[in-house]
Amino acid sequence: MIQLEKAQKLYKNDSAFKEFVDYVAKLRQNVTETALDHMGRLLQETGLERDQVREVMKKLEGVGAGEYRIGRRGKPTRFLWTVASREFAESLTSGNTTRPSVVPTSGFPHVDPSMPASPTFSHVFQLRADLRVKIELPQDLTPAEAERLATFVKSLPFL
Predict the structure, then answer these.
(1) Which burial class, exposed, middle or buried, applies to 131 when counting CB atoms under 10 A from its CB (0-12, 13-18, 19+)?
(2) Whose CA is closest to 11, among 82, 96, 84, 78?
(3) H/E element holding 81?
(4) What is the pTM of this model?
(5) At 48, is the secondary structure helix, strand, or coil?
(6) Per-residue pLDDT for the chain (159 aa), expressed as one digit of tens each?
């Protein structure tokens, strides 16, 4: 269970925790995993050290935001979010007391926050004579991603 009040205290009193949370709040989307090795941009922008980021990940686990995992067998040291990462960060930066959504722990691709977002194209589909549907898709959409999207649309509940 997320301990939002404890997280808010850390945000106010721990500068490394605040820098990390501010960085996550600026991401374009929620992430399910944050690898320590992929935090280069955060380290450059804030001047934080790797050990400080590692400690922040442990503190995030302590407040119930996810699980800190030490790298083993070729896997990097990482933080696995169990709440919507950006939503959590925004709740702390804004002082909002709304609890962030719980996210599934599998089935979603890893998003590397240090990588720039993929360029997209906007598409308009005339679904009905009186209804256009707009969707933004990556320019390099793969057949597998298109299939995932089609499966998602098919899974939507209809009344």
Answers:
(1) exposed
(2) 96
(3) strand 78-81
(4) 0.61
(5) coil
(6) 778 889 899 999 999 999 999 888 888 788 888 888 877 777 777 788 889 999 999 999 999 888 999 988 888 888 888 888 888 888 888 876 666 655 544 444 555 555 556 678 888 989 899 999 898 888 888 888 888 888 878 877 764
Q: Copy the structure tokens of residue 18.
A: 């605040």
Domain 4-94, CATH: 1.10.10.10
Q: Which of 132, 110, 144, 147 is nearest to 32 (CA)?
A: 110
Domain boundaries, the chain: 4-94, 120-155
Tokens 């205290």 sit at which residue? 9
